Amino acid sequence: MKIRTALAATTAILLAGVASAETMKIGITQNNVGVDSYQTTYEKAFIAAADANDAVETVVLDAGGDVARQIAQMEDLIQQEVDAIIIWPTNGEAVIPAVRKAHKAGIPVIVTNSNIAEQGFDFVKSFSGPDNITQGARSAEIMCDKFKDMGIENEAKVVHITGQPGYTTAIERAKGFEDRLPEVCPDVTIIDTQPGDWNREKSQQVMEAFLVKYDDIDGVYAGDDNMGVGALNAAKAAGRDGIIFVGATNFAVGYEAMAAGEYWGSIYQSPVDDAEAALQTAIDILSGKDVPFLNYFDTPKITQDNMGDFTKPVF
Amino acid sequence: MAALSKAQIGPILAKQGILIAFAVFMIAFTIASPKFLSVDNVFSVVRSSAILGVMALGVTFVVISGNLDLSVGSMMSFSTIVVLDLHDKIGPFLAIPAMFAMTLALGAIIGFLVGYLRLNSLIVTLGMLSAIHGLTLTYSGGQNMDIADKEGTWFSVFGQGTALGIPVPILIFAALAAFLGLVLGKTAFGRKIYAVGGNDTAATFSGVRRARTVFNCYLISAACVATAGLIQASRSLGSQNTVGQGLELEVLAAVILGGASLLGGSGTIFKTVIGVLILGFIQNGLLLLGLQFYVQFVVTWVIIILAVWLDIAAKRGKLWSPIA
Question: Which of chain A's ends, N or C, has fewer CB atoms near its CB within 10 Å?
């Protein structure tokens, strides 16, 4: 039985390999296009990158945030016998059976943007996406460097606004930041941590409470720029100047606030890079190249000092 | 509580159980955190509760009429996105009435389906929740909406301005609460809403036009949502498509916490306001206490259950149910 499965899988891979000599048919099922600007831009960039490559034919699907729909889409793609499937998981746990099914059918699966849970790793060829722990660590470095410039690295107090509790991205960024900050700036204290749920308005409310509670806040780290700008709005309304704001996933609003000198830094994560990296990972796997299991694309630091090197995010 | 000279204070307590619960929490939080009752903090809580509060005023009408409105969260996202988009296209003077008209049209659709076609309001508004979300995303193309010139617009006055030292969102909330409180408590239209929610067959036979009354309640709810969207848009001058997501349940919780019955026929604007304030101050108080946020979800629930229990215990004059 096992041998038969293995044979079937090998044959399928071989067939896929033969097919790829002409065109590679790559299917993608996305999480929830249109729910935010990042995902919208990602889809456009993915389609553009695929169109630009004659060797690639794509089937682009969107699960609309619905796990059941995503599983059905995985099954459709398996039926259509695509050469590779890229999945942006709606849920890191629930999609594993569908991923396993594709794996058993001999179709290599590439996970994009946010990884699936560890017990599904055996069925996945590669994860292509940002390294959120490194992002959190880099945000800590940006903030620490700025404190050193200002000469307050021995006393500065920081509040931390995280993404939605329970989300992998939120947990990893928070971990990266909280682990790295004491390494680079051991005397800076994180005085409070509360979730802003990736929501600008919620983050603004949290920051308002922080401003009431603490008379002395030197820095704010927010899990993304949307929340960072919400916190900035709260500080501006309360007339509290001189706070250093650092975020992640540089949004257009964050970029503008940086240009205005109100927001110090962030992490530049382009949905275009994200989409192109996912497609390239799939192509490399189908061409038989060696691809690392965790295939991160680079997400550099951006601050008021070097923002000229980056174009303004379109989202 | 019930043991203290019940004869005199019983009737007062019975009417104001939720107010007593509110006072108890306020005192407890003030003891726990000295900054809780500072002017800055109170303004900040009421200002951020104003958005939820304005929506709750409208939903109170709908709930008293014996119906539900679960679409207010996504409708608020819609209003916010539309007014921000139109602000840069046709200017704030036209953008505000245009946004109100579009939001009222959505309210009219719901009012028609629930009022005149007598469809179940839970199904209609649950469906509208996702339909309006889709509409918002289609309208915006999934992009965040931001006003280009944030410094140079007077539009920020609704969310960020102050008058007589009081933040404008609070003034809007208070004025609207006073006005709608009068409409509900002192007019014939208000009495018809209670009649329809209490017993719509009896109301119909007494000559109340049920369909029209329900329709008007949804229009009022939509107008409140549009006002909330205006405050929201003006407060941050930019927004995600999902800004109102999940608010429908918080709004409903505030209305029910205030003592309105899900079965219709009872509730007041004043008590809804208290319900809104309790939720706002709980959230803020737990933040000030610095409780870990995973714990906050649980503690919030405990406090809400305590409030509901105090309210009911005061009404029946006993801590335990007499027939338990």
Answer: N
Measured distance CA(A222)–CA(A264) in Å, rounded? 12
Tell me the residues of A at the B interface, defined by beta carbons under 8 Å apart: 33-37, 39-40, 165, 192-195, 199-201, 204-206, 208-210, 212-213, 226, 229-230, 233, 237-238, 251-253, 315
Verify that A228 and A111 share a domain, yes or no: no
The answer to whether A128 touches A297, Cβ cutoff 8 Å, is yes
Q: Which residues of A touch B44 (CB under 8 A)?
A: 208-209, 212
pLDDT at A164: 84
Q: Does residue B322 fall inside a structural domain?
A: no
**Nearest residue on chain B to A191, alpha-carbon basis:** B290
Count of domains in chain B? 1
Return the pLDDT at B1: 44
User: By the CB < 8 Å criterion, does B146 face chain A?
Assistant: yes
Burial of B299 (0-12, 13-18, 19+ CB in 10 A): middle
* Residue-level pLDDT at A29: 95
Query: Chain A residues with CB inside 8 Å of B160's CB?
Result: 237
Q: Give the pLDDT confidence of A162-183 residue by residue, as tens digits.
A: 998 877 788 899 999 999 999 9
**CB-count burial class (<10 Å; 0-12, 13-18, 19+) for A219:** buried
CA distance B239 to B143: 9
Distance CA A294, CA A273 (A): 16
Distance set, CA A92 to CA A76, A156, A214, B120, B306 (Å): 20, 37, 37, 36, 37
